[in-house]
Every structure is written in structure tokens, then in C-alpha cells.
Amino acid sequence: MTAAAAIAAPKPRRRWKEPSILPGFPLAMGWTLTYLGLLVVLPLAALVLRPWELGAGGVWAALTEPRVLAALRLSFTTAALAGLANVPIGLLIAWTLTRYAFPGRRIVDALVDLPFALPTAVAGIALTAIYAPTGVLGEPLARLGVKVAYTPLGVFLALVFIGLPFVVRSVQPVLQELDAEVEEAALTLGATPLQRFWRVTLPVLTPALLSGLSLAFARGVGEYGSVIFIAGNMPMTSEIAPLLIVIKLEQYDYAGAAAIGLAMLVISFGALLAVNAAQMATAGRGRA
User: What transmembrane ranges does the database entry give (predicted)?
Assistant: First the structure.
């Protein structure tokens, strides 16, 4: 065939749809979209539509109130800081539970999951009792001039408490599956323990750490029960956004409450997208 004939010959149509290896894909995808639509998309659509009863100006006015801005700032700032603080703490705990055998390891491993099982109100009461000015830790801290309960610092500690298991449980399986031969090879090539961790172990753990960070952040933004007791709920100082939503609901201001919820949804979604993008990028570099 000449070159001209090869160019003029019709090209085979590209097959965009490849057959699935596993059977039942249309049924599984149909049920998946149905459940997501009913349980996720529909409620979120209602949340997105409800604030606009106030009109664009009303939504803007509701979200730019100084009290609302202060509550949103406190919720997202403390959730982000608590998530970042949990990354090294969770990594250290996961490393200890995975790499070392010691008496009582099973008990320590079970204690990690305690914030999962403990009712959030109970956690809030316990933290308040400990860090109150008359508490076991609050009293000596108060003598040093550090006030924890009824301040943003108390909110931060509560979010660290409830977010820690997410980081530990995200990192622990990766550490367990990490090939020890790779680390041993780095040692035989002359790498120091710090270089081995920084250049061999940490790149593998980074996607799991980011996953734990995003989970802890998402839990912290919407946390209510464990925070309201230790926060003190003082407007403009220690009032969180979920509490402000409850207050507006009690005042029958449903559109105003939905407006705050919409703002939290948009900011949370953007933050989680950024973390997921970073996670995918680090995972790609790890595979490369």
C-alpha cells in the first residue's frame, strides 16, 4: 500500500467503551448512583437551595455578620491546626504500635479507638473536668497563666482528641505493609536512620498522612458535642459555627442556618479537594 493510499484509507473507529472484567457493572453502578443521589446529593441540594429564600443580598448579609465570620474562622482554623498537630502525633503512635513489641501494646492499640466509641458529649464533659480552672490539669496550668477551658485553646484540644484516631488508623496499615527490605537496602547503602526515614519511609507514608489529615479536618469542622462544653460558647471568642447553626434553628431562622451550612460546605469541599489533589500528586511521585 502506498503512502497516499494509507492516508486515504479509513481509520478504524476507536473503542471508547472497554468491556468490564467483572460482571454486573451496570447494576452496581445504578445502585451506587441511586444511593449517592438519595443520601448525599439530595440533602446537599436542599442545603444549597434553602438559603436563597433570603435573596443574594440576604445570604451575603447573613454570612458577613461579625459573629458568623468569627464562628467560621474559629471552626476552620482550629480544625486545620488540630489536624496538622495530629499528623506527627498520629505518626509517632502508629510507628510505636507497628515497629515495637512491648507489654500492654494491645491495650494502647485499643485506647486509640476510644474517641471513636466514646459519645462526644461524654468526651466534652471529661475534657472540661480535666482542663477547667479547678481541674487536674487546668489548675496548674492556670497558675502558670495558661487558660484552656472556655477558650479557643480548649476547642483545639478537643479537636485533637477526636481527630487523632483518624491519622493513626490511616497510617498504621501502610506501615504494616511497608517492605522492610527496602529500608534495609537503604541502610546497606550507607543511609543514616534519619535519611532512611526521610527519603524512603516518609514518601510512602505521605498519602496516608494526608488522608488522615483530611479525615481529622472534616471531623473537626463539624464537631459539636465534644466542643460545646469546653468552648464556653462565648460569641466572637469561643463560639463554633455548628453551635451558631443550632442557635439559628432554635430561633426558627432556617434560611440563616442553611446559609452558614452552605458556607461550611463550600469551604470544606474546597479544602478537601486541595488535600486530595496533594494526596494524588504524592502518590504519583511515590509510584514513579
Answer: 21-49, 69-98, 110-132, 144-168, 224-247, 254-275
Q: State whether the Cα torsion 118-119-120-122 is positive or negative.
A: negative
* One-letter identity of residue 283: A
**CA-based angle 121:251:50, to the nearest 5?**
95
| Within a domain: 112 | yes
Range of the domain at 161: 57-287
30 Cβ neighbours under 8 A, 6+ residues apart: none
Query: How many Cβ atoms are within 10 Å of 161's Cβ, its own excluded?
Result: 21
**170 within 8 A of 215, measured Cβ to Cβ:** yes
Is the confidence at residue 288, as pLDDT, over 90? no
Which pTM was predicted? 0.84
Beta-carbon-side half-sphere exposure of residue 71 (alpha carbons within 13 Å): 31
What pLDDT was estimated at residue 7? 44
- For residue 230, give the CATH number of its domain: 1.10.3720.10
Residue 13 domain-assigned (yes or no): no
Flag whether 221 is in a domain: yes
C-alpha cell at 214: 483530611
Could you give the angle at the alpha carbon of 222 between the alpha carbons of 153 and 156, nearest 5°? Answer: 10
**Number of other residues whose CB lies within 10 A of the CB of residue 53:** 13
Calculate the CA dihedral of residues 259, 265, 267, 269 and round it to 10 degrees.
-160
What domain count does the chain have? 1
Tell me the pLDDT tens digit for each residue of 172-190: 999 888 877 777 777 777 7
- For 14, 223, 264, the CA distances from 234, given in Å and listed in that order, are 63, 17, 20
Instruction: Please state, rounded to an integer, the average pLDDT across all residues of the chain.
Output: 86
The Cα–Cα gap between 219 and 269 comes to 13
pLDDT digits (tens, 9 = 90+) for 144-168: 999 999 999 999 999 999 999 999 9
pLDDT winner (highest mean) among 9-13, 98-102, 157-161:
157-161
